[in-house]
Design goal:
Layout: E1 5-7, E2 14-16, E3 29-33, H1 39-44, E4 51-56, H2 60-66, E5 76-79, H3 87-98, E6 107-110, H4 114-117, E7 130-131, E8 134-135, H5 138-157, E9 165-168
Parallel strand pairs: 3-4, 3-6, 4-5, 6-9
Antiparallel strand pairs: 1-2, 7-8
Length: 179
Amino acid sequence: TSPALKQSTPSHHPIPDSADFVDSVTPRNYVELFAGTASMLQYHARDPTARLLAIDHMPEHKFRKLIPAHLRQRIIYYRCDLEKLTEKKYSSILRRKLKITPTEVTHVHALPPCESFSVASRCLETVKHYLCDKPNSPIAIKHSKMLHTVVNTLNRTHTATSGTVVSLENPVSKRYKTL
């Protein structure tokens, strides 16, 4: 293991030291959709040249409370109904917030809403979110539409030759069969 790598706690995945990024010439641009706690952006924030954009539907003050204090000013936030995220809207957000085009995005990551997609029960459900792996509750139906919209927008915007890494958290769940 490189001396610049530190072991994270409690897992054993190495976390790069910020010194690993000192030689970066071109800033890297990271976008997280359904950002929540911005876990992907928190990781990439170790790169001092990284530009970080979180896009989510929650009010900004709620988002800011979910992330560590030292990152609250660093991560740019945009509130958006992701069910209406078109290619044009996505490009416009990137242009306004980071002053870039989609081809300049290094990595875009989407995390489906945990309120309905997580298999972990929070004992808050009044209606089962899924029946036979199909959205059942109003929130699950809305989240499923949002996720389909986001995946379709990203597929059209970031083609295989674009050079942008596109990732989706937990894509092996039965609930993703229709994507």
